Amino acid sequence: MGKMRVHRLYKDAGLSLHRTPKKLRLKRVFQELLPPGQINEGWAMDFLSEWVIGEKQQSIRIINVVDECSRKDLWIEAAHNINASKLIDVLDRIVESRGLPRYIRCDNGPEFISSLLKDWASDRVEIRFIQPGKPTQNGIIERLNGTVRRECLNLNWFNSLDEVNDLLGHWYKSYNFDRPHSSLKYKTPAAFENLNQNLYFRVAPVNEG
What is the pTM of this model? Predict the structure, then answer.
């Protein structure tokens, strides 16, 4: 049967050709990463993965939180599991010592998009999600994670979770208090914050009147 005849019979029968719809493409808008002008104005957070070699090999996760202005590492801790509740506990402890930031930048991991974190941040902190597949939009914490892996994790074998946290604790002190940063005019993050108290972001008090 010829091609044209098939087409005519198809039309006479009132049939229509099924067209495969075009796949929807996620629109990605370039977002330039600009560090905030005030200390504690913006934080960034992310996870790293590592292994503990003990009686049996176990995976662990490491939460890392950084101040985007001062580059100070605000919290780094390893645990066998870090769920949304554990993440909120970490953030609460940082808030106790520094106060609330204006925003926290993160990717779209399950802990970060959880309803628990959404409720915690509601009316207090803006959660700024980067676009999927665009880790450069969270470049400050990505660079810090790379430093942790290069200078700490990749150089050691760990037999326990305590060993990991002990080494991370020593690295944390050296990074924040001993090492000058070119982006901070060769000041350490701790020294930069001490010398620039006038740049410290404070949440405006709520007017109760």
Answer: 0.80
